[in-house]
From TrEMBL:
Source species: Nocardioides eburneus
Pfam families xrefs: HTH_IclR (PF09339), IclR_C (PF01614)
Domain IclR-ED: from-to ranges: 72-249
Record Gene3D superfamilies: 3.30.450.40, Winged helix-like DNA-binding domain superfamily/Winged helix DNA-binding domain
Keyword Amino-acid biosynthesis listed: no
Keywords, ordered alphabetically: DNA-binding, Transcription, Transcription regulation
Protein name: IclR family transcriptional regulator
HTH iclR-type domain segment(s): 10-71
Highest taxon of source: Bacteria
SUPFAM superfamilies registered for this protein in UniProt: GAF domain-like (SSF55781), Winged helix' DNA-binding domain (SSF46785)
Amino acid sequence: MAGNTADPGRSVTSRILAIIGAFDGAHRRLTLTELAERAGLARPTAHRLVGELTEWGALHRNEDGTYVVGRRLWDVGLLAPVASDLRSVAVPFLHDIYGATLATVHLAVREDDHVLYLETLRGSRSVPIVSSVGSRLPFHSTGVGKVLLAHAPDDVRHRVLSAPLQRFTRYTITSPQRLARQLTRVLEDGYATTGEEMTPGACSVGVPITTSGGVVGALGIVVADLRRSRGRLVAALEVAAQGVARGLG
C-alpha cells in the first residue's frame, strides 16, 4: 500500500498512481472506501481523484458503485513497444489457427507474476473460457502460463512456487513440487498443457514465442479434449510461434 494520508509531501501524481496501483489480480473491483484505504488516501481526496480518473476513462464505475480498471488504460498499455509490436505481428497467425481449428486462441505475455492476455479469439465451439483481452491469470493453471513461468527468471519461479497455488477446479495443480516437475518437462518438450485446471471442460496447450532475446510471449489454444489432437495443435502453434518470431526480427 503506497503512502499515507499524513504525508504532506505526496504529489498528485503519486496519489493517482496509488489509486491505479490499488487494483491487482485479487482486487479487480473496489469500492471508493476500499480504494482510499488501499491507496492510503483520505476519502474526500480519493473521491475527487477517482472522479477525474473515471471521467478520463482510466477507471469505470459499475452500477453497484464499485470501480474497475477502465478500457482507456488498456488502450494506452497497448502502445508499449513490446505489446504493440508483438500483438500486431501475432494477430494474423492467431487468425490462421482459429480458421483451421475454430477453437479459442490466445496471445499472452508475462506481467510480473501473472499472465497478461494481449489478444484472444474466441472459438465457436462450446468450451468454457475465463480469459479475455487484458485479463491477468495465474501461471500455474493455464497452458500459456506454464510456458511463460518455465522460461521466467529464477526469482519469478521462486516467488510463484513459494506462494500458495490457488485451486480453481479439482484438477488444478496446487503442489509446488509437482508444478516444478511440470516446468522442467515444459523446457524439455517445448510446450505445456493443462487438463481442466482453470475451468471444467477446458483443456489447453501453449508454446513459447522465442526470439534471439529469449521468450517474449506465448501462443495457446483451448479445446475440450487434447487426447487425440495434442500433436496436431502443438505443431500448428509452433509453426505460428516461429512465424511471429521471424516477424519480430
